[in-house]
């Protein structure tokens, strides 16, 4: 039974949590073959072979060359959304990110609403449903901000007139916030669907206006939780996966926590040949944010004293997801076809580097 926690950002009157170390948890998910894969003979020409029971994945370059990689979790094309959600959040709430080539299932994994078929719902909806199911909305509050990061500009998906939202960092605690972004308090699951749908529509509209695709931008859902019900009613309700360890009975506290769920832009290299102006800018900025994410991951994996989080807005927003009190999960998504061997291979390497990151849990005494 993993002891999960929604990462505490602010604790009033609580004793320090014991120091500890937690590795970034990395899962790989294989998308089922689609018609395009089948048309290209993916049945006979898949470049990956999974061994979910030993949490291994084999990547076949050709008949003679094959490498095996271990992850924290290996999800086959048959893995359900429920299993992925449970595994990803177990023990590692805080930040969940999906990384991979466009079309490999990042949005399916994190952003799928599943309002027609609940078994299809992705991590965003499941996390909010889970949180709502264990909180008392009389004494606790759950609010969301939903943002898109495109060309180094943060846009509000719940209040689309807000663009260029600044990222603010508390100089004392290092906590990152976006005070200009709408923060909408959630009433119930129906409301969650409504808001996420509005966010999706605004994302689509903004991208149409800018003449780009959603795969070019990062979507970031921030769930803000403020909880005090334990104090009020002494009830034994707990957040999923053992989050109750943050609420020991003797703590008279109001606890604020933050959960980030990020659907990253497609990791494929953008072909700059023949593209002009806007396209070149786009390629540069997507490369900037994902490249700087990669640099931070490398620096963290190597335990470097300097993590270059200031190089891009993406890494500035994710700054408090790395190191410190963070609990971070990364899901890398891949397709089966050997036609995309090079992108699949680079996605797997990205995941392998992230497997080396260890976050040291340090909570400052107040
Ligand atoms: P990405 O966000 O990486 O660009 P999408 O999530 O949009 O990719 O997925 C591309 C297509 O593949 C979508 O039609 C999606 O429904 C489908 N798909 C992706 N992953 C799965 C999966 N695990 N099971 C079923 N369909 C999937």
TrEMBL record:
Entry superkingdom: Eukaryota
Keywords attached to this entry: ATP-binding, Coiled coil, Cytoplasm, Cytoskeleton, Microtubule, Motor protein, Nucleotide-binding, Repeat
Gene Ontology terms: cellular component: mitotic spindle; spindle microtubule
Coarse class of the protein's main subcellular location: cytoplasm
Chain residue ranges for the region called Disordered: 1-22
Binding annotation for ATP: 100-107
Cellular compartment(s): Cytoplasm, Cytoskeleton
Listed GO biological process terms: microtubule-based movement; mitotic spindle assembly; spindle elongation
Protein family: Belongs to the TRAFAC class myosin-kinesin ATPase superfamily. Kinesin family. Ungrouped subfamily.
Name listed for the protein in its UniProt record: Kinesin-like protein
Organism in which the protein naturally occurs: Oryza sativa subsp. indica (Rice)
Residues of the full protein shown: 4 to 369 of 905
